Amino acid sequence: DQQVKQNSPSLSVQEGRISILNCDYTNSMFDYFLWYKKYPAEGPTFLISISSIKDKNEDGRFTVFLNKSAKHLSLHIVPSQPGDSAVYFCAAGNQAGTALIFGKGTTLSVSS
Amino acid sequence: GAGVSQSPSNKVTEKGKDVELRCDPISGHTALYWYRQRLGQGLEFLIYFQGNSAPDKSGLPSDRFSAERTGESVSTLTIQRTQQEDSAVYLCASSIGQISSGNTIYFGEGSWLTVV
Q1: Tens digits of per-residue pLDDT, A53-90?
Q2: Which residues contact A100 (CB under 8 A, 6 or more apart)?
Q3: Cis amide leading into B8 (omega within 30)
Q4: A chain contacts of residue B35, beta-carbon cutoff 8 Å
Q5: Which residue among A36, A49, A99 places its CB closest to the CB of B45?
């Protein structure tokens, strides 16, 4: 049973437009959420996180929104750039100290 | 080095052989994680070490998989009697203590295992 779901395996966006990547979770004990970005043949790198006490966190072009009642979070990238093309993983954890659980990832392609 | 270091970076092994994968976490990081990613799949949690606590082994797929960690340093993931389905990239990550706001885990570049 997948606790963290990324239902869109891929997303294509034009340069300059907004990219919206979605993630749903089932475990109500999760209270900390992160997004990671992965290029081929490299390890995932941390992008942005959000605690369950917030509903929005922004860092430059990247904004993460959390809707706890819907158990849903999304990553917005605006404006999208070709260098953003990568696989994006959503991850969830509990600050009491469990391991992070990752979704299956969404491949973002940004065309120029 | 400053980051998480994994070795070997690539390993091709024959079905039925045992393999060991090594991870050197970032110095001072008390938490260490192993994940794997099979082709076309997401990151699958395998095992989690946190300080001196008993490891969370809930993600290990079978008893052919085991992992050890020496204190708060090196970890070794061992796969016995490898099967073709074990082919994947095995990713190690570490973090300063438990995950919390402002904290995150840092990944190595992975060990690519191919079982033929």
Answers
A1: 999 999 999 999 999 999 999 999 999 999 999 999 99
A2: A34, A91, A92, A93, B33, B45, B99, B105
A3: yes
A4: 102
A5: A99
